[in-house]
Write a structure and sequence with these properties.
With 292 residues, the chain is α/β, with parallel strands linked by helices. Helix content is 40%, strand content 17%. The chain has two domains: 90 residues, Leucine Dehydrogenase, chain A, domain 1 (Rossmann fold); 134 residues, NAD(P)-binding Rossmann-like Domain (Rossmann fold). The strands form three sheets. It has a six-stranded parallel sheet, sandwiched between helices. A three-stranded parallel sheet has the order 3-2-4, with helices on one face. Strands 9-10 form a two-stranded antiparallel sheet. α2 crosses α10.
Length: 292
Amino acid sequence: MELIDGKKISAEIKEEIALEVKKIKQAGGKTPHLAAILVGHDGGSETYVAHKVKACEFVGFESSLIRYEDDVIEAELLAKIDELNNDVQIDGFIVQLPLPKHISEEKIIEAINPDKDVDGFHPVNVGRMSIGLPSFVSATPAGILQLLKRYNIDISGKHCVVLGRSNIVGRPVSILLSQKADVGNATVTVCHSRTANLKELCLQADIIIAALGVPEFLTGDMVKEGTVVIDVGTTRVKSDKTKSGWKLKGDVKFDEVAEKCSYITPVPGGVGPMTIVSLLKNTLLAAKGEIY
């Protein structure tokens, strides 16, 4: 079993981005600028956005953090999005999810200019991605593909089972893995809460992408020998063993599953760091105008 080190790979990619940004600045070009809108004080979102700001500093980006309280009205948020859409200094921006229930996430996502949608959530980017056109690919699926690529894990012709059908991870990664590409050409099965023979399908899989958001859902008896397992889950659970009072758990019961795997990602330190670095890569592409 080999551990897939997302921290190591993300650090390598950040160094690559930082070098490219340095060259842009030396040539008199504009410094890439990423903005983030954060609504409320969700612990996970706070941590994630803080990591994004720190990563921007490391690679030499400019960054802006725009905060709103939970009771912000939808119209005010839409007005800010319109402002960022028209701000030539901002190359890309994200609206951190989840949002309060009184705000329509769909309406917010659709209001973002696809040219600045570095999260890759806008229907235009999702549509372009699904038919293989240049687009901003959502950060977590892009990060997963980078891990597979940099660990030289061949997925061509392999059976990949994706657990979860979210628009952020499950659906896009299933499309990307099945496309004609260097990291692609897999036969993909998407499983979800209504899948009747889920265990049977998992036991057939050469690669499993676990993206359900259910702690320790995938157990040792669901995995065959030599499987590659990518754990996307990051659920905060209470713990009396940490100073913070909580810890992150993945969708995979690591101790049981790892001993059967050829490769596996840990939680934390696997997919998470790759999500942030993929966002940086999208922002660099936006700044260089290489998508649209």
